[in-house]
Amino acid sequence: MSITGILAKVREGSLLDAAEIRNFANGLADGTVSDAQAAAFAMAVCVNGLSEPERIELTLAMRDSGQVRSWALPGPVIDKHSTGGVGDNASLVLAPALAVCGGFVPMVSGRGLGHTGGTLDKLEAIPGYQTEVSPELFQKVVGEVGCAIVGAAEGIAPADKRLYAIRDLTGTVESVDLITSSILSKKLAAGLEALVLDVKVGTGAFLSKTEEARALADSLVRVANGAGCPTIALLTDMNEPLATSAGNALEVESALRVLRNEPGEERLLEVCLALGSKLMVASGLAESESLAEERLLDSLKSGRAAEKFGKMIAELGGPSDFVERPEKHLPKPKVVFEYPAKSSGFLAGMNGRILGEAVIELGGGRKRANDSLDHSVGLDRIVRLGTEIQAGDPLLRIGAVDDASARRVSSLLDDAFVFSENPSEPQALILQTLPSIE
Question: Mean of the per-residue pLDDT values for the chain?
């Protein structure tokens, strides 16, 4: 069928067959589908939606529009993906820990979007670390170290790359159908044997409503499993940052604390253990989640996960002594300012979006796609919800380039915190697992 015929069927809500979907995806990749046709497709899908079989076929077609990796390794090829949140640096802990436990983790990550940070931006706070590498180097590091965290190479899911750019211009980014196929086409192109998804919900995430996050998680799980990749999703709370910091170098430091088995990042550790244990069971690396969690904890306590992280950094161009001497290499903010509480009471609420926007205002995130970043700036020592605070006590520290920048951000943060006279019930961190376990 012609491209115009395919568009007419989507517009009318008629089902597309696999050949029609592949024809359209190939046209996106080779340019025979025009920008106008791509925009019409995105809008029609956004309005009318796709059936589950169509979502699966679109995901596979976009995966197959470019290179698809294959591996010959003595263990399962596995990965984790997060929909993004403030202070979400779990990938830096989980990839090396899983590698210690026998998995091979070819993690293709992205940069910060909106008020949420990006894994590549965090890693680029490490001097010399390469996020854009050749396929040969990527394969070598995954095979020899067990994990590598890099950006998407050229030729990976080109149909998605084209459609994503169109979606950004046409107000169709929020389509669950298109989000699903976009995320999974790139992940499945990595040749994965199992995948775990961390779908964030709350003020510090893209999706603030639980029902929206659950719908996306359900779609991702159904399509990934339908495409042949065993996949589990966790809905996790993002009404406060995952780590006690938000900002590139600062989040690397907090990840190192977990990798070194140091206290203070219990929320980050809990998510890593939950994601990692489920992924290990799904991939056959462990018989039960409790055994998997024991092995993950041992990788941290023994120092082997930190050692893996250091090897990955060195192999990808970073300092060979980074884990041993991070303070020698990570950039430091020029000004550090303690932000005081304006009220007394129990910290009952925190607006994660405002915290993320504060990092952007400091220069640690992008207002425009081509903005350069100051990796040193950000927020750290962020007080946890439920903590009893006296007026004047520090709620966090602002790391900035100068006093004026710190003052601007201080004013922005005035609307970020809510206090109550009495303590409230703590919010669960792991909200739901999909598919649901009976």
Answer: 94
